[in-house]
Amino acid sequence: MRETLTKNLLLAQSGGPTAVINSSVCGIVDEAVRQPRIDGIYGAVNGILGVLHEDLVDLRHEEPATLQSLRRTPSAALGSCRHKLREDDYSRLLEVFKAHAIRFFLYAGGNDSMDTAHRVAQLAEEKKYAVQVIGIPKTVDNDLMVTDHCPGYGSVSRFNAIAARDSGLDTEAIYTSDTVKIFETMGRDTGWITASTALGKDDPDSAPHLIYLPERPFIPERFLKDVKSVYDRLGRVVICVCEGLKDERGEFLRASSKHIDIDKFRHPQLGGVGDYLVGLISENLKIKARCDKPGTIQRVSMTCASEVDLEEAYSVGQNALSKAIDGENDRMVTLVRKRNDPYECETGLVELDKVALKSKRVPDAFINKECNFVNDGFLEYAKPLIGEPLPHYVHLRKKRLEKLLPGYG
Amino acid sequence: MRETLTKNLLLAQSGGPTAVINSSVCGIVDEAVRQPRIDGIYGAVNGILGVLHEDLVDLRHEEPATLQSLRRTPSAALGSCRHKLREDDYSRLLEVFKAHAIRFFLYAGGNDSMDTAHRVAQLAEEKKYAVQVIGIPKTVDNDLMVTDHCPGYGSVSRFNAIAARDSGLDTEAIYTSDTVKIFETMGRDTGWITASTALGKDDPDSAPHLIYLPERPFIPERFLKDVKSVYDRLGRVVICVCEGLKDERGEFLRASSKHIDIDKFRHPQLGGVGDYLVGLISENLKIKARCDKPGTIQRVSMTCASEVDLEEAYSVGQNALSKAIDGENDRMVTLVRKRNDPYECETGLVELDKVALKSKRVPDAFINKECNFVNDGFLEYAKPLIGEPLPHYVHLRKKRLEKLLPGYG
Predict the structure, then answer these.
(1) Predicted pLDDT of residue A175
(2) What span, in angstroms and rounded, lies between the C-alpha atoms of B121 and B115?
(3) At residue B275, does pLDDT exceed 90?
(4) Exactly one of A89, A112, A115, A141 is catalytic; which is it?
């Protein structure tokens, strides 16, 4: 019997952009156009807000070349949002689905978005509205449960591995100036992103020398001891820290400040953890320190995107669509690592409620016992995700000439 | 008559590292090994400090492959320094030259280093010691006089053009979150680096929207008006600012702070201009703002290095050596632009005292009359320096579906 019911697909992007989330969109659309069972291919503008506001676009109207170029365009081409849904929003979502005959809903995002997708799926079932809801993992934070890793993470890791190494070369070059460098990465609650800076270390003495993750409370005394110890040995220190570091009371580290009322336009401003640590070091160790804080560019840098990550992002998008067509519902696509060397990864499926609102922290086994670096286990885990080896840099042998004069000064 | 006198070459790198200063070293050494009149090819470790301390290395002992790979290794392979010379240091430099038969001294650096080179050349002449001293322009700040531009600038510009564009895409994607982005670049006294972010603007509405250079005093009221105007039109603003912005009194803008004595490890910390502006905007316009501050990675990023810059850095190194061999002295190699489209550039020479201690600011003709962006003249000047066009990104056409429901909320 021939199906006559119109079946439209709606996809949406959520949360913080990444270098590869558009690659997932490309994967979805490439697969959707091959599916005779799909009529309209729609995108929501600015994520779930676009669904609520019925702000939808027809992706069949885009040039095929544009859609292909999405694979190399960072950020979220359809727009994203951070929007906390109210209880009555869910029924609105369903109304929009019904009005536009949405029978497949694909939602790319993190653990909040997976909760949204799960609740939509539940409500649809309760209301007997047939829709296949599939989540697509997307977060530089890499904190989703069950999946081996998250698309977006490999690229932010590659950026940070390269940037921390560059920052280290810079620090190494200038003698007696800026000898302590704080490199502040994203990652509010978990240290996955910060840990990735270790992938840039290509020599026991090279950067980064110390890494602090939010999985461990920050203890100033211990930190200062660590810094001094590296400084005494090498004369320089590169310290990679997570923006979400907290002290033993569970409070974020911040450069404290108070209003100095110079004029009406000078106002108090709280600096981040990097500024706090610069102050801590200069006041206690009397060493000049400086902070590099690439901020949002780390998550959308196409120049440093990982080829593995781009490919996997495409594949989870493609896979989400085919699973929806196969009748799967209330599931998220996962990445399942089959082997490490050579690296091989497949896609899998997990119930949305197993990932919704949950967060995966960097496991104890990946953190050294001094709480100031990662273990080899982490490096084995993360290395395949950043793709090609980092560009090769050289160091001079520096064969010294014999000194012929009395010492200087 | 055959010359029997040993003639050694000494080269040194000075000041902040760049992505391409090692390319200059490669150019020097490649040329030096072809010159039968040069015996030893020496490098000073950590710039002029290495000369003072007689800490010299023999570059003929390096593997040829290592020397070639320097072209793609950022930062300063020989080490650099920031060291203010005392009066009696100059005679020490000359002693070291004599002891090691240094007859050619090549010094890569900025306007301070050109002063050092000039004074060494003067003293050598006064003391009748024959040495050819040639300066090699090197500074991401692009503030050397006479030369059209400085090696290092094209690459830092490419980094910032890409990063500001990425930062803009990121800001554009997330609706109702971090809608104002401050992008803080290097450039203590001049706005060349900050101006280069304009090269990333590929659409009238795309980032950057506002650019503030230290060539103009920062006026908070005008700034807030500018920001509000863009925000009201687009709902987002990306503002590129120089770390060296000053107010009308000539004082650096800083996030003011006072000691809050929570515990002995919480100390006052002055934030930079980015933090100050985040505070200014949030307090006065009640809009959420965020700061990206790539810091030192902008000057040593090989991933974003400009091919034109790498090539020119090599060529000024090579040229400095051949000019020294030709008997030139007390000169700096310059870059002389012959035409813009297609871009063509040659090397020239200038007396060191014409560049020593002087600084070239962004000219008035390159800054718009509102003091919040650059003019097309700047774009024409800077575009050839960043090399290949920036990676191509696409925007979706976003053909809207007809709305079928009453409005939301």
Answers:
(1) 73
(2) 10
(3) no
(4) A141
In this structure, of A393-402, B210-219, B286-295, the range with the lowest mean pLDDT score is B286-295
Who among B260, B292, B399 is closest to A57 (CB)? B399
Tell if the CB–CB gap between A174 and B76 is shorter than 8 Å. yes
Report chain A residues whose CB lies below 8 A from the CB of B392: 69, 72
Contact in structure between B241 and B217 (CB atoms under 8 Å): no
- Predicted pLDDT at A261: 33
Distance separating alpha carbons of residues A151 and B79, to the nearest angstrom: 38
Strand partners, B252: B246
Q: Which positions in chain A touch B303 (Cβ < 8 Å)?
A: 162, 303-304, 391
Tell me the chain B residues in contact with residue A394 when contact means C-beta distances shorter than 8 Å: 66, 69-70, 73, 77
Burial (CB count within 10 angstroms: exposed 0-12, middle 13-18, buried 19+), residue B296: buried
Whether B341 sits among the annotated catalytic residues: the reply is no
| Interchain proximity B221–A283, CB inside 8 Å | no
Of B54, B174, B304, the CB nearest to A17: B174
DSSP string, B257-318: -----SSTT-----B-HHHHHHHHHHHHH---EEEEB-GGGGTS-STT--HHHHHHHHHHHH
- Tens-digit pLDDT profile for residues A302-330: 999 999 999 999 999 999 999 999 999 99
- Sign (positive or negative) of CA dihedral B236, B240, B245, B249: negative
Give the residue from chain A lying closest to B99, CA to CA. A404
Q: pLDDT > 70: what percent of chain B? A: 94
Distance, in Å, from the CA atom of B348 to the CA atom of B357, rounded to the nearest integer, reads 20
pTM comes to: 0.95
User: What is the average pLDDT value for chain B, to the nearest integer?
Assistant: 93
Say what percent of chain A tops pLDDT 70.
94
Q: Tell me the one-letter amino acid at B265.
A: F
Q: What percent of chain B is predicted at pLDDT more than 90?
A: 88
